[in-house]
Amino acid sequence: MSTTPRTDAAEETAVPSSDATATTQEEISAEIAEIAAQAAQATPDGQPSGARQPRIDYPPYRSSILRHPTKDPRHVDPETIERVAPCFGHRDVHPLEADLTIGAHAGTNSAVSGEPIGERITVTGRIVDGDGRPVAGQLVEIWQANAAGRYVHKNEQHPAPLDPNFTGVGRCLTDANGDYRFRTIKPGPYPWGNHRNAWRPAHIHFSLFGNAFTQRLVTQMYFPGDPLFALDPIYQAITDQKARDALVATYDHDRTVPDFSMGYRWDIVLTGSGRIWTEPEK
Ligand SMILES: [Fe+2]
């Protein structure tokens, strides 16, 4: 691939400090509940004060305390950046790059060319703007943990098995209707260093490039009914329930592939009042 998907493996799986490991899930959950109660209080105009975008300084998500920006962002000239940034074209993205189930060594004549372990899923959806118009030709990249909850990343050290047949990265371009489609393995939840026994809900990271690299958006797709939602400070950093729901895919039996895979649908709204949550720039 000509681009390297950003991974959150480093920040989500950093070796926990003694302070972090001393904090219990109960203490984190109490902090989450206190902030949620504040967010639920109505403002003078009668609207909930919960924001659709995550709080960048969200104390239950421990590393956000030090990582969030404290000054206004500086504007740069996009044209200057685009002159030196990498670029891609239709010929650069092969259709097989959207299939993460074909094995990490497919086509390399490697002796290791088996299929990855796990529940095969098809993830599809439509990318639209705030007026519901499809966004065609959009570069969509994904990266994710394997079925055991393990990323292929040097900073990922928790003792779940790597899958030699699964890289966890893929990409595609949206078609004329704004539709994207991936075939992959359902990722597992994984522990991270935020507090003692902290686990992330299963998720797939998405990157959307827009028409230029300076427009890149990064977000996460979750799976319906995950019991870890209530415990996860990253998911809870978004205090508006509708905004959280927009990040959760829908099981769609029409998107299953007979005798092959389960099916999920996740549509992405890029602009307007229904815009999905995206990670802040670092
Ligand atoms: Fe992750």
TrEMBL record:
The keyword Nucleus does not apply. It comes from Nocardioides terrae. Residues 20-43 have a biased composition (Low complexity). Keywords: Dioxygenase, Oxidoreductase. Signal peptide: none annotated. Transmembrane segments: none annotated. Residues 1-76 are annotated as: Disordered. InterPro entries: Intradiol_dOase_C (IPR000627), Intradiol_dOase_core (IPR015889), Intradiol_RC_Dioxygenase (IPR050770), PCDO_beta_N (IPR024756), Protocat_dOase_b (IPR012785). Belongs to the intradiol ring-cleavage dioxygenase family. This is Protocatechuate 3,4-dioxygenase beta subunit. GO terms for molecular function: ferric iron binding; protocatechuate 3,4-dioxygenase activity. GO terms for biological process: 3,4-dihydroxybenzoate catabolic process. Residues 123-151 form the Intradiol ring-cleavage dioxygenases domain. PANTHER family: DIOXYGENASE, PUTATIVE (AFU_ORTHOLOGUE AFUA_2G02910)-RELATED, INTRADIOL RING-CLEAVAGE DIOXYGENASES DOMAIN-CONTAINING PROTEIN. Pfam families: Dioxygenase_C (PF00775), PCDO_beta_N (PF12391). The keyword Mitochondrion does not apply.
